[in-house]
Amino acid sequence: MTTATPTATVPQLNLPGQAAAPAGRADTFMMYLMHHGYRRDLDDFVACVPLTPVADRATWRALAARWTAFADALHHHHTAEDEHLWPALHAHSTDDEAAVLDAMEAEHSEIDPLLARCASGFQQMVDAGDDSVRGDLATTLIAATESLARHLGHEESEAMTLVQKYFDHDGWSALEKKFGADMKPTDLFWMIPWLLKGLSSADRADVMGRVPAPMRLIGRIAEPFFRRTERRAFFYDARPQAA
To answer: Domain-by-domain residue ranges, the chain?
Structure first.
């Protein structure tokens, strides 16, 4: 994923809402880009769910499908961390550092039930939801947003410091390949425009400068369709939209 040289300290990506970007030789921009996407998505759901009319089942179906895409991406990310990243860091960590890594896994377990409750709420709204179900869903989305925000901030501040302590460019690049080992090429047609959504022009240019040319091409091809599907799901978003 990265194009940095193996020995240089890499300028780190630092996006809105990000708690920290520890310095080091590993270009961890993809991690921060994913985190930005999770924060942004939850903000979008929190904004739209209370405004989406109960009777508009077509929009609830679009929102439910979009929630599934978000939850699948987050589950894949957390599973990769639990199976690959935390064990790799545990192999080197001190007792204090191991406590940070154990907290990361525990926080994943705290978030998962909230995501499941949200999924159930969206499905109920598709089937025959009412004002009460929508209200419960809106409340649970806020709780999920707060829980995930605490976790991502903790990870960015402390766990990513350990990443930079124990990984160089080559080591991190090898780990990123494990993260994406089960991703099909067609998955990139959703993932890349999803990652780019909501970035400022400066941050977008920074990201595009870090990814290979084929990924930039896929982004240009896939983005118009992605934007159309986003507008359908978040149809009742009353916030000012970026150009």
So the answer is: 29-182, 185-234
Which residues contact residue 22 at a Cβ distance below 8 angstroms, ignoring those fewer than 6 apart?
A: 12, 160, 161, 163, 164
Q: Which CATH number fits domain 29-182: 1.10.10.60, 3.40.50.2300, 2.60.40.1080, 1.20.120.520?
A: 1.20.120.520
Instruction: Give me the tens of pLDDT residue by residue for the chain, a chain 243 residues long.
Output: 444 444 579 999 999 999 999 999 999 999 999 999 999 999 999 999 999 999 999 999 999 999 999 999 999 999 999 999 999 999 999 999 999 999 999 999 999 999 999 999 999 999 999 999 999 999 999 999 999 999 999 999 999 999 999 999 999 999 999 998 888 888 999 999 999 999 999 999 999 999 999 999 999 999 999 999 999 999 999 988 754
pTM, rounded to two decimals: 0.94
CA distance 83 to 224: 34
